[in-house]
Design a protein that fits this description.
With 146 residues, the chain is mostly beta strands. The protein has one domain: 7 Propeller (Methylamine Dehydrogenase, Chain H). 0% of the residues lie in helices and 52% in strands.
């Protein structure tokens, strides 16, 4: 399976579950997550998908769709169906998302704050854990070595 963020305003900013084994490959589920989903990461245990949603936090403060926070959403993947599991506010212009090996720690990269925000996740709730300060705006996090 492949997860894809759709920025098309007609599609209401969705995340789609694309079944690659089908011939031809096709979207088998989709869920609206909010304005401008950016980073998508599947948990190592395969049960959850983390999505960073800009939520207008990268816009000018005078823009009509500006919000003073982004959103980190966790979607549960159950039998190819995506359902909301948890969400929390995050910083501004957050792009990357990643999971730790334990599938209980989630990372969100926030450009304006120049940090990687960390959250603990117990399957139901996201709680702020810590932040790693960076000297520039981080944008493309990946975790390897599962």
């Amino acid at each position: 399976m492949l997860f894809c963020a759709n920025h098309d305003r007609a599609a209401e900013d969705q995340v789609m579950n694309i079944f690659l084994m089908a011939n031809p490959p096709r979207a088998i589920d989709q869920i609206a997550v909010g304005p401008t989903p950016e980073g998508i990461s599947i948990s190592p245990n395969g049960h959850y998908v983390a999505v960073t949603v800009m939520n207008g936090s990268n816009a000018s403060k005078t823009a009509p769709f500006f919000h003073d926070f982004g959103i980190l959403k966790i979607l549960e993947l159950n039998r190819r169906k995506l359902t909301p599991a948890a969400e929390t506010r995050i910083g501004h212009w957050c792009q990357g998302a990643a999971w730790a090996r334990d599938s209980r720690t989630v990372f969100a990269q926030c450009v304006v704050e120049k940090e990687i925000q960390m959250f603990s996740f117990d399957g139901k709730d996201l709680k702020p854990a810590d932040a790693i300060k960076i000297n520039s705006g981080p944008v493309g996090i990946r975790v390897v070595g599962y």
